[in-house]
Amino acid sequence: MTRVQANLLLLLAGAIWGAGFIAQSTAMQALGPFWFIGLRFVVATFVALPFMRWEKARATGPLRRRDVAGFVATGLALFAGAAFQQVGLLTTTVTNSGFLTGLYVVFTPILTVLFLRRRPHWVIWPAALTACLGIFLLSGGTLTALTLGDMLTIASAALWSVQMICVGVFSGRSGRPIALSLVQFAVCGVLGCAAGLLFEPVSLAAIQSALPEILYAGLFSSGIAFILQNIAQRYTTAPQAAIFLSSEALFAALFGVALLGETITPAGYAGCAIIFVAILAVELVPELLRGRRAGRPAEA
Prior knowledge:
The chain contains 13 helices and no strands. It is mostly helical.
């Protein structure tokens, strides 16, 4: 697979995730957030199963216990991120949720410092402040307009960052990205259904009503998109991957306006642009500066 093909797969994953915000929002007209999470990831587990068997047949060695433990930890982070995001959608819009979730690109390097003790590039700090300004404008330019759902979505972005860090560590160490996908899907499915049994009412009629959204999110947003991400990131750089995956925010806004009739204020558009600039700056500025330094000796 070429780098261009890998980046196109990442762009496709971003589009699938962006459209998935529509399914996540409309599904909760009939189904609680935990039941939706549980059922979508049960479907995703079955989607990943044949791919995992294909990967296992070509693996050079068996999985180690510490690899499986890492996969479970990744699944816990994924469930927490999905839960905060899904509950947040009860009181925020698809457009806001899409853009605020994109903050994981800013949070990821910051959390990398805390967890892996790696010093960040200087651009991280102004980018984080810029993203906060974008959130302020996207919320309507007033602090009171920032809903509980927005705050939960920001928390979910931080949890997605933890999940991305776990994927980078455990997928690379094990060499089994699809096995990782299957385990984390299974963890989310079990925990989501268990939380639904404890906290939410459910009926067969409610499941049938939300079945199209469950199948879309399970087959595409949860199953195929995550697998595409894990596969494609083996053939492209992390900055390029983050840029293409962050397109989910743009697709979420586009689908929110086109399919749900949502509107974005001029300040909201400015906030979206500022958040996206912060996301791009975190990934592009270090690469541009590195390339400029590398080119100076040749020019001399």
